[in-house]
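Consider the following assembly input.
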Amino acid sequence: MSILLEPSTRIICQGITGKQASFHCERALAGGTNIVGGVRGGKGGSRHLGVPVFNSVREAVDVTDANATIIFVPPANASDAILEAVEAGIGLIVCVTERIPVLDIVRVKERLRASSSILVGPNSPGVAVPGVGTLGIMPQGIFKRGCVGIVSRSSTLTYEAVNQTTRNGLGQSACVGVGADPVVGLSQADCLERFLDDEETKGIVLIGEVGGISEERAAEFLRGRVATKPVVAYIAGQAVPEGRRMGHAGTIIHYGTGTAQSKIAALESAGVTVVSSPVDIGSAMADRLNAPSVGEVRQ
Amino acid sequence: MFIFEHQAKELMRESGIPVPRGLVATTESRAVEAAGELGEGPWVVKAQVHAGGRAQGYFLNDRHLSGVEFASTALEVGKAARSMLGSTLVTPQTTGQGEKVHSVYIESVVKTPLQLFLAMLVDGDSGQIACLATTKGGEEVETAVQVHPEILIKTLLGSTDAVSEGVTSAMGSQLGLTPLAQESLTCLIAQLHAMFFEKDLSLIEINPLGVKDNGSVIALDARITVDDNALYRQSRLAALGVRTESGSTERIASQNGFNFVRLDGDVGTFSSGAGLAMATVDALTHLGARPANFLDIPPVLEVSRVKQAFLLLLADDRIQSLFVNVFGAGIMRCDTIADGLLLAHLEKPISVPVIMRLAGTNAELAISRLERSGLPIQFVNDLASGAEKIASLQKEPPVSRPRTGWFGRLLGFRTRRHASGKS
């Protein structure tokens, strides 16, 4: 078992003929990811990377029975692409596109509330389940099938955590980049819930960054629950001066909340081991797995 | 993207939102004239910068002058304008370097018995538009809210283009407003909300919002942030665009699409991805090293822009060492980084030790290319050993440093480590 992505998941790619999409889908296919088709308006009926291309998501679903999609559509059309996937009943929608206007995603979220689809992203590196596949832009060849579930807001730090847990032999059960934008679909707390329910996952790495209150929400979710699995966290931006613009809109700090200190305090009070340097993520996870304190109720 | 107060007020005026009359001036004489055109005093002269906290701020050349000055004669208006124009204002919301003032905004002073704080922004937590309000408007609002969080009223306005009237009138009564003022507030919130969607804003802040005895409201200050990602469809606003970054290095960086922030140390840092860039700064700081900057290069880059980024760092004479931390993934390939560094070196020879951590796509290729170049580079396997290397460099006695030229440093850094070796 794993989370979000299973061997039976049938994946399509929206915008498959684009340069980025082709680059990543080609590698994903070579790595065994079950991509069954692609969508590109006007190119229906052709083939690309050895899979059929359709004019619409609806058409692709009718023919391939797809239940997941990876979206590589440019920002101006990306929210329409997400909505198209929702209307076609796709269960898992991963959106890699960055720089989508935030109000477009506000509208998308409104629509998602009335559906059973899950949106990962936007501005997400995607979902990877070693041994099953990669849905997104995560690099091939750094993963190792194992027991650590990784959830992160930042793409590059996801790879950093993957790298460290591969090198110390723990490996990963699944990795989810929830996206670096201020408004995203699936939250870090949602991922924790899935990882806690997943048998293969023995420990969880949570990577956050200053801004927003996603990490505080994750801590809230853990509090009061039985500590069945150790959680290690790192919050990026601790040494960065408060309130400065750091490239992610989500890191702008509004009204004194969302600071590294508030996130660290919230997570620690929920029994999470928070490392102060990103170099210690992998070793802290190994330490916690070797000395588990299972069964205690989190405060 | 930030816009100036006078631009924000112009947008509000167009949307039918009451704002005081005001005029922009870029010279002292125009400021005096403007005061006359606005009629009777007193007036307020406000420095136009892309930051809040102006009344709490000070000018670098005159610590007694703030960014918001009151004047009772036209002569005083001119004097305030003269002192502000061309000077640098530091506020709690600018960086320590402050921001240079190129224009001032002059308004007739409007006195109101009640001043609210009102803001509208995208709430990441709920994915909706949130409206924040408190009766404790003014410069001290942040402290007031910090001490008494209960005075801040937060209301979610939903995700669609219209606000329900029930929601806003509930806000008005929570704030303890008179029925007439409640009505004005309901109308104002509907106008702001429509503007928010129409103009693709990410923040509107009115602090203070004056409430008059007759219940009408007036936006005495205005701060608006436009969603950078939506500028492609907001061409009029995009044309107003001066980016938030101040300082020439930050401007060059922003023109090239880099995220650059100047910090106070002496280690140049170079990363791709905001998360990894922040982690790089964190890891160095954790070991006592002091980063000179935060630099995040977006992926999908031509070699020429990587070169630009390195040149930007090398132009900073505070830098005593350079730490490159790149995880090649997707379109960002390590060999692009290597080529960019080599090209930068041709233009401005690198004279400081360089520690490089290259991982992911084409790391081996990049390392072998750089090794052949003879540049003073030490390669490390991971972020941990890279940060340690930098920290140990800094602990070397500083007296040896001025005497060691580029060649000396090169000799000192002959020992290179291959990425596939053990660290």
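Chain B touches chain A through 63 residues (CB under 8 Å). Ask yourself how this observation constrains the way the partners meet.
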